[in-house]
Write the structure tokens for this entry.
Amino acid sequence: MLGTILIGALIGIGGTAAMDVWSIVLWKVFGQGAPDWAPVGRWTWHLQGGTVFHRRIGDAAPYAHEQALGWFVHYAVGILYGVALALVMGAAWLAAPTFLPALVWGIVTVAAGWFLLQPGLGLGWVASKTPNPIEVRVMNLVAHVIFALGMWGTALALA
């Protein structure tokens, strides 16, 4: 089981790295904002005080290392998702990974962002309080498909 957990962690890192490459392409090529995990770090920091949902995370007291904490949490969650995929799918899938399970899992994982993180940051359920919720939702889904591709590609490379 330890081997499965280690492989799952690597799969999660690969998926998260693919998502990050995608966000850098969006930033450098298409002029979208640079990747910024500081709000996630600030949100995570405030969890210790029992605050899960903020009206606006920008109004919460800053934390000196929120950018680093945000990146850490981003990768920790990706690793958790990769381990969960590896444990659920098992040795047979790890030996011959197929895309569909990674895709389904990648899409399922967007729910945590929609129903926990975005409301926690003050963006509303499924980005409902953002200026263009439909665009945010589509971009979230695309990012999680990229995450799935990264997990699958990493699983293939490790098989």
